[in-house]
User: Which sequence fits this backbone?
């Protein structure tokens, strides 16, 4: 079964909607380059759409009713939104789940040092990356510094036109004969992903006090601009990401090139669809979590009890909580695990099985299973669920394709789908085809962005 490009099927009205959605999406990417920033932006947009903080409702004892909209935040890095439906929660929810963390470099807790009259920050890369892709790029530093007095300083350096940027240096090609003989995984070592942050020594009066004058100068700048001491790195969360805004890609502007589209392309379209929902039959949920790129671990990852506990609180406020009711709710729910797929790349065609590959511009992608090689670590959706989704998509004129992640013996990947499936609910992976996945700059088709949003709206309405 061949799915063709959807561009030629669009009306002028479709193209206008597509461009408006793309503009909102680029703004979201620029505002949220970390999971904390994404959460802040999600909450801002949710509150603007009439959503209220679940913790405030719990404190007030106010009960929830059909049509009410609430959100819950976990440690400022994960968020769940709910629109209460007409049916009891015990009958299940329609859930859109995605992740808002992306591969990057994290600054270590004891990072600042000087060598060769230059100052560096030592980093530890986060998620699966090709390390050589992160050298010689303009980089920005985003995050927070939590101080002992309880204050938290937000950091964002490298995004404004007049901001400095940072970089990881690479060996010049004239001296790189030995380096060029190494495997790609060894060309740049993880311990060499240190970020160059300064080169000017401190003031003359500091020379007698300090040997590392460049480091001393950086500490002076940090003190003046951020009120930060060297010891404050211990309680800081600083992420090094590519500097620069999301941009249209190509002469025809048909794609978007940006950092973090895995998985913020699915997170944003899920959120945008969720904000359209008004008083659904079944309660709608948009679940946007952290830590997927490192196994969904920790308090803010999908393996935590954040989602389960939040649903329990929700049921309490609707007057229907019991342990059995909670289990029934989760079992009877349906979910789209909204995550990206590997877009077919003609330059690397040998890694794809073309009949079962996802193509940019061919619509939203359904993946019956993920995993690697022999479906290891996979969620494998059942046929009946797929049939129901096919009908929903066709009834709502959503263009879609089916795919798996590359050739069977080449590799693979995973999502949060298998974790939610452990409740017994029906789950399938559904998202957008991406080129350059996990690279500093990833590419996605605007058409697929548009079809994903349409798909998520249709699912919340009709599943």
Assistant:
């Amino acid at each position: 079964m061949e799915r063709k490009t959807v561009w030629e099927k669009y009306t002028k009205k479709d193209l206008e909607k597509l461009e408006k959605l793309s503009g909102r999406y680029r703004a979201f990417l620029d505002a949220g380059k970390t999971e904390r920033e994404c959460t802040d932006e999600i909450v801002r947009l949710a509150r603007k759409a009439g959503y209220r903080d679940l913790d405030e409702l719990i404190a007030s004892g106010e009960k929830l009713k059909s049509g009410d909209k609430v959100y819950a935040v976990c440690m400022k890095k994960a968020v769940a939104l709910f629109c209460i439906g007409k049916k009891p929660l015990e009958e299940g929810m329609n859930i859109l789940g995605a992740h808002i963390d992306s591969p990057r470099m994290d600054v270590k807790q004891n990072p600042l040092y000087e060598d060769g009259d230059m100052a560096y920050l030592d980093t530890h890369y986060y998620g699966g990356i090709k390390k050589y892709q992160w050298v010689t790029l303009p980089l920005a530093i985003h995050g927070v510094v939590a101080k002992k007095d309880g204050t938290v300083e937000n950091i964002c350096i490298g995004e404004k036109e007049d901001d400095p940027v940072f970089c990881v240096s690479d060996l010049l090609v004239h001296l790189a004969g030995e380096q060029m003989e190494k495997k790609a995984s060894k060309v740049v070592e993880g311990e060499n992903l240190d970020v160059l942050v300064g080169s000017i020594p401190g003031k003359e009066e500091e020379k007698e006090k300090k040997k590392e004058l460049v480091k001393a100068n950086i500490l002076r700048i940090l003190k003046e601009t951020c009120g930060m001491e060297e010891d404050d790195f211990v309680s800081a969360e600083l992420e090094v990401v590519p500097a620069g805004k999301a941009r249209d890609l190509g002469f025809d502007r048909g794609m978007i090139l940006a950092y973090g589209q895995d998985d913020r392309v699915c997170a944003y379209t899920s959120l945008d669809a969720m904000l359209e929902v008004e008083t659904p039959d079944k309660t709608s949920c948009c679940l946007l979590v952290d830590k997927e790129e490192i196994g969904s671990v920790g308090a803010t990852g999908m393996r935590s009890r954040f989602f389960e506990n939040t649903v329990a609180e929700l049921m309490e406020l609707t007057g229907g909580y019991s342990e059995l009711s909670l289990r029934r709710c989760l079992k009877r729910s349906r979910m789209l695990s909204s995550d990206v797929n590997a877009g077919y790349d003609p330059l690397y065609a040998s890694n794809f099985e073309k009949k079962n590959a996802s193509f940019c511009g061919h619509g939203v992608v359904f993946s019956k299973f993920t995993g690697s090689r022999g479906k290891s670590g996979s969620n494998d959706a059942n046929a009946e669920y797929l049939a129901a989704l096919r009908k929903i998509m066709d009834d709502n004129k959503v263009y879609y394709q089916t795919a798996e992640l590359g050739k069977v013996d080449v590799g693979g990947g995973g999502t949060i789908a298998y974790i939610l499936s452990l409740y017994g609910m029906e789950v399938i992976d559904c998202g957008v085809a991406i080129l350059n996945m996990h690279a500093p700059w990833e590419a996605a088709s605007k058409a697929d962005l548009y079809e994903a949003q349409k798909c998520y709206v249709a699912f919340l309405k009709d599943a």
